[in-house]
Design a protein that fits this description.
Layout (H helix, E strand, L loop, with lengths): L7 E2 L2 E2 L8 H4 L4 H12 L12 H8 L10 H13 L30 E4 L4 E4 L7 E6 L10 H20 L3 E8 L4 H18 L4 H21 L3 H26 L4 H14 L1 H12 L8 H19 L7 E4 L4 H13 L3 E4 L2 E4 L1 H6 L16 H8 L6 H5 L7 E6 L14 E3 L1 H13 L3 E7 L3 H16 L5 E7 L2 E3 L2 E2 L10 H7 L2 H9 L7 E3 L1 H26 L13 H22 L4 H24 L6 H15 L8 H7 L9 H11 L1 E6 L2 E7 L2 H29 L14 E4 L5 E4 L7 H26 L3
Parallel strand pairs: 5-6, 5-12, 6-7, 12-13, 14-16
Antiparallel strand pairs: 1-2, 3-4, 8-9, 9-10, 10-11, 14-15, 17-18, 19-20
Length: 785
Amino acid sequence: MSARLCVCVCLCPFVFPAFDYGFLLRISEDARRVEALNEYLSSRSYLAGYGPSQADAEAFALLCGPPPERHVHALRWYKHIAALNHLGVSCFSAKGKRVQPPWSPPEGTDVSKLRLYNSLTRTKEVFVPQKGNRVLWYCCGPTVYDASHMGHARSYISFDILRRILKDYFKYDVFYCMNITDIDDKIIKRARQNYLLEQYREKKPSPSQILQDVLTARTPFKAKLAETTDPDKKQMLERLDAAVEAALGPLQVAVQSNAAGDALQNQAQVLLEEAKDLLSDWLDSQFGSQVTENSIFSLLPKYWEGEYHKDMEALNVLPPDVLTRVSEYVPEIVAFVKRIVDNGYGYESNGSVYFDTAKFDSCPAHSYAKLVPEAVGDQKALQEGEGDLSISADRLNEKRSQNDFALWKASKPGEPSWDSPWGKGRPGWHIECSAMAGSILGESMDIHGGGFDLRFPHHDNELAQSEAYFENDYWVRYFLHTGHLTIAGCKMSKSLKNFITIKDALAKHTARQLRLAFLMHSWKDTLDYSNNTMESAIQYERFINEFFLNVKDVLRSPTDITGQFEKWEAEEIELNKSFYEKKTSVHEALCDNIDTRSALEEMRALVGQSNTYMAARRSAKLPPNRMLLQGIALYLTNMLKVARQKSSYIEQKLKQWMNIEVLCDELRDDTLPELGVRLEDRDGLPTSVKLVDKETLLKEREEKKKVIAESIYMAMAKLAKMKVKPSEMFRSETDKYSIFDEMGFPTHDAEGKELSKGLTKKLRKLYEAQEKLYNEYLQSTQNGS
């Protein structure tokens, strides 16, 4: 027979295993029974505060009375149980001993867990870092050969938002690594073409030579145009061809007519500028193989990387903790490729090394194309992944399977090269991320990020070669892919003339407005960059900023140290309840795949409720609760990462003016806007003082002046009209009327025909209206106004 004895060890309460007191039943003598119980309890100790269990009651009933004092443990236990059960044994006073009642912890509620949409499962998964609070994150960076555009911004602003929220809100220790691709087929081709075109310009060819070369270059260009099937690319090439055609004609005429030197040179330079792209292609096909100096291929990416960093700084995107460049990791890439070959997943062919997808996929521990398995065999995507310079027939025939991809490419003439066990060559595209990420983050990372269009083949190939290197199946735990970006509903394309660089976007909108636009959309879905999108962001910014200005005005009102703590009435209690409900809703939204769109809507609702509260207090001529509004504003500030204005000379000077009810117009309209200060009059309350950025106030001042000027003009025009006598108003319109009655009212048109009844009725209304205006004017002059 067994039960449980409720006891406690020193500081931490717990219940011992089942107390088998059957041994007490086997002892018939009371003294021996007490002695056995004391020995049993000597290995246990307990404190008061627990209710007796069934085991306590049944063991207690076996004893005839309190144990002798020499049996300390048995006696202590006996007194404890007796007191708790109020048994009134003779050794206690009549009152008994009062003890604490039992305590039970609250049931609590379920705590929301962060879930992220994982491309590896295509569903939202609970986010669990591999090592405690530490998050290892790798993000695919840009291929730097041209200006960064809004498509780049889509990824890098979105990942910056996710990174900041994981780090600053969820308090993860994020280690963020990003690469720069500065060795790539596009970079090689663009750098080579730029170099050759510059060399061509430096030779200063004659107008006739430029004409001849462009005509020659146009032949393969026309063939390329005819073969192009992609609508956007075809449209772009057709536009280029039309521009060249337009520039060719004048130069041909000028050459044939032996035009003057300056005119001829000007026409030649116009053609050279319009035809530079097709001329570069032609020069590359003729002389590209002669470009051998590696430094030629480094200048272009170095310049555009610098421009990229400037753009990111302008967008307020945090720099990575570690930045890796392909050109600096060639030895590590060579070693990475070698190990893949040694592990049996790669093979050499004509100086290049390819990944054996069939061998990898046949291994029970591995699986190829985890992200987009349905894309296996998509030759167009695979060839785009290999690069423009690597899809020639001879290169494609080097592979065992069309699904295999290059780990290391044998360099051809006109390409940069590095030493390797397989000869001179350069890294494949996919291998760079695996080698660099592996070098910094090791065999497994928590998060890998990139654009949606990188899933296949780039990221699937990264996964395969990395897991082939490390011989594991968990190189990436969570794969995050940002959604596409469209421009007013269309794909961004130079051919559609909607190609927007980051600098273009920043010329129209601030970095904060762009970030708000991104926050108002899901990071993983398509974002449409349009006037409507940006207008929504601007309106949200104004709405929030105006709230902050109103709260600052409330907090700026003078009060003593105790006056800031005001009694809470029903309105404050209700607003505070809403405040905590909204905080909970925001948290749940952020836990749900970092849903910033829903979070911002909850914050908008909170601001709306706060504004309603402040308006009600103003209507009642009562000050709003400072501490409550300050708490809401600080919360919103932290969530939005809005830079709060620090106490400045302006604010210090404002403190001296707080009790001034009326300021002169010059100070209000001219001086204060230059300082970034706006005054707003409030009925029955002190003037509101708000700190706003200077540019906004100056713009407001100009708009106000414009409105005033228009008002004055309208007033002057009205006054001038009022001064006209009704009898004179039509007499000046001799182009319309020829005969008037004694009151100056027209009766015949300019041709002498009598006016129709309808027109006469219309003119009569105008006459009577003017008569009324003129009488008002006479009345005002008589009153001296």
